[in-house]
């Protein structure tokens, strides 16, 4: 891009930020009867995002909601670029342009179908998983890296029969009794016909966090969504 083009893009970007700030100010004056809320979250946090969004919509049905599900790295870029109002990810954020507000511990747990032999008892030890088929999230995703790190620490190699970048696909295979999986425990969505078991030794947890762009105005809708996320974390004693 030419020097003139770079200069124009810089001014255009600042102008767009000014427009967005003006829209936020107008929205604050009007309250939450109109406006928009753009939320981003990783697939593993769907279980906390969906109830929070539903609560916001029930209270303010006039809002236009946009929910983007993607890997945390992409969500951080979208937040920095001003394409999202608020996101869910992990603390600390990778980008120095973002603020991370920890809201709950993201702990890994074993997920099995009801009636599975491992569904009994309070916890499952690593050695009990040696012969189990696993459905796991795709390599390269943050959750999968945590799962692999735990197995490596246990000196075990999981027998992976399916990999998917979609949590729903993984859970569908587990629900059918064809495999077991390991996912963040307290935030599982679509948990019908599934049993969540504590792993021993416990895998390392991470701090799930609300992500905000530094210096950007926060819309009333984004603040309300954040409050709903915090409330759900407190309900679980986290």
From TrEMBL:
InterPro entries: HTH-type_LysR_regulators (IPR050950), LysR_subst-bd (IPR005119). It holds the Pfam family LysR_substrate. GO terms for biological process: regulation of DNA-templated transcription. GO terms for cellular component: cytosol. Residues 31-233 form the LysR substrate-binding domain. This is Cyn operon transcriptional regulator.
């Amino acid at each position: 891009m030419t020097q003139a083009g770079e200069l124009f893009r810089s001014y255009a970007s600042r102008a767009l930020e000014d427009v967005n700030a003006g829209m936020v100010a107008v929205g604050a004056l009007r309250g939450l009867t109109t406006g928009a809320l753009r939320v981003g979250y990783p697939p593993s946090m769907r279980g906390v995002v969906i109830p929070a969004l539903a609560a916001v919509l029930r209270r303010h049905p006039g809002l236009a909601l946009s929910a983007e599900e993607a890997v945390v790295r992409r969500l951080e870029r979208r937040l920095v670029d001003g394409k999202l109002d608020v996101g869910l990810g992990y603390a600390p954020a990778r980008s120095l342009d973002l603020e991370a507000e920890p809201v709950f511990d993201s702990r890994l747990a074993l997920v099995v179908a009801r009636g599975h032999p491992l569904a009994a008892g309070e916890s499952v030890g690593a050695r009990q998983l040696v012969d189990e088929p696993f459905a796991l999230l795709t390599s390269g995703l943050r959750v999968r890296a945590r799962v692999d790190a735990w197995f490596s620490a246990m000196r075990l190699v999981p027998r992976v029969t399916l990999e998917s970048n979609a949590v729903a696909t993984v859970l569908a295979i587990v629900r059918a009794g064809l495999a077991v999986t390991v996912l963040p425990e307290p935030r599982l969505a679509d948990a019908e016909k599934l049993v969540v078991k504590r792993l021993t030794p416990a895998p390392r947890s991470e701090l799930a966090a609300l992500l905000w762009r530094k210096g950007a105005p926060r819309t009333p809708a984004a603040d309300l969504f954040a409050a709903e996320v915090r409330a759900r974390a407190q309900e679980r004693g986290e």
